[in-house]
Amino acid sequence: MIVSVVSMPEGVVARTALSEVRERLAAPDFVIVDIDQGEDAPSDEQPLARSLSLDDTTWEWLGRRNEPVRADYHAGVVGCVVPVIDGSLVKRIHVFAGEGHLVTVHHGPVGLIDTFIGRLPEDTPSSGATAVFLLLHGVLEVFRKATAQALLEVGEVEEAMLDKLAIASVFLPLSFLTGFFGMNFSFLSNNLASEQTFLWLGIGMQVCALAVAMYVVLYRTHWRRLRDDDRSHDAAGSRLPDPS
Fold first, then answer.
1. Residue in 101, 108, 2, 110 with CA at minimum distance from that of residue 54
2. For the chain, is the Cβ count within 10 Å smaller at the N or the C terminus?
């Protein structure tokens, strides 16, 4: 277990033991505490709420592994379990905050916590409520970046699928027509023997199939994208203030 105590407003980080954390939480000075219980923490340990001299009945879930997302409020203190994206994983951070303290608990390292603690000398929160707001803002920012990255990846997959669809849209109609007119049965042999019939049906149908396929491909990719871009630019321009 790794326990880090951040003295505010200096933002100085120090490693300590749980016994000292109990004393710091009882002191009037605002303090931020981060507790990393480790990914392989034993399940038979004493409940963290009891170790911190908290109300076992209300906060018995604090630090418990695999605790679902939740939020509790009791006697001016808020406690919640917040999901956060950490690389390719979704981890949970337990938050316990009052007016004079903020305690975060997690199992294993979490990049968001390191970023949050690293910014404390700049942000300098003066209360638990402000610190919780900054922490949740960081959580939302991580989700926003992950969502944007996921959208980019989905866009790349869609473009790759559309490229394959474009090739298939061009060659499948041609393959069907060549296969159809290559069949040797009586209707084709007896009725479609003239040069004019070949030009109208043999070449004309292929040209029509190519035209339809190209229209579908271009509409689904370039034209629709250009139209959407034009609409977004027009909407952005209509929101600009009048210089006069």
1. 101
2. C
Rg (CA), the chain: 32
Condensed to tens digits (0 to 9), the pLDDT of residues 170-180 reads 677 667 767 77
Cis bond leading into 9, ω under 30°? Answer: yes
Q: 35: closest CA among 88, 82, 94, 87?
A: 94
Write down how long the chain is: 244
> How far is residue 3's CA from residue 20's CA, in Å, rounded to a whole number?
10
Q: Considering Cα of 210, then 215, then 218, then 221, what sign does the dihedral take? A: negative
Give the Cα separation of 222 and 55 in Å (integer).
Answer: 61
What is the reported pTM? 0.65
* pLDDT tens-digit series, residues 132-161: 999 999 999 999 998 888 888 887 887 777
The residue written with tokens 């880090």 in the block is 4
- Residue 240: pLDDT band (50, 70, 90) is very low
**Amino acid in position 206:** Q
Residues in Cβ contact with 124 at an 8 Å cutoff, skipping those fewer than 6 apart: 8, 9, 11
Element (H, E) at 22: helix 18-26
